[in-house]
Amino acid sequence: MKLFYVIDVGQQLQEEKSDVNTSKIWMKKFNIVSMIKKWSDETKISVFKLWLEGNAAKWLEKEEYFLINVKSMADWEIDFLSKFKGNIKPQAGN
């Protein structure tokens, strides 16, 4: 099951398969792309949500269901990294 996708230089979505890449590295790459593209916080949040797949998408669905206040991208990043703790493919129940 895919956790999420990353964008390459040609802006095509590409499945991330490397065991070396962790959620922290993925987040760092995401932030670099968002900086290069000069995305607003709103755009960052939208793209972040769009790129999540599998367990990460399920986590997002639960987070949004119970969401009371709108989160900033910084809040989403902290919550994401806290939940997945560097694992690219978290096991069920984590």
Q: Please, could you describe this protein's structure?
A:
The chain has 94 residues and is mostly helical. The protein has helices spanning 23-36, 41-51, 54-65, 73-84, and strands at residues 5-7, 13-15. It has 4 helices and 2 strands; from the N terminus they run E-E-H-H-H-H. It is globular and about 30 Å long. It has a two-stranded antiparallel sheet. The chain has one domain.
Number of strands: 2
**N→C terminal distance:** 15 Å
Q: What is the string of helix and strand elements?
A: EEHHHH
Helix content estimate: 40-55%
- Our estimate of the beta-strand percent is 5-15%
Based on CA inertia axes, which overall geometry fits?
globular
Largest sheet entry: 2 strands, antiparallel
What is the average of the pLDDT values?
75
List the total number of helices.
Answer: 4
From the alpha-carbon coordinates, what is the Rg to the nearest angstrom? Answer: 13 Å
Number of domains: 1
Major sheet strand order = 1-2
Point out poorly predicted stretches: 7-15, 89-94
Class computed from helices, strands and strand pairing:
mainly alpha
How is this structure best summarized?
By secondary structure, this protein is mainly alpha-helical. Helices cover 52% and strands 6% of the residues. It has 4 helices and 2 strands, in the order ββαααα.
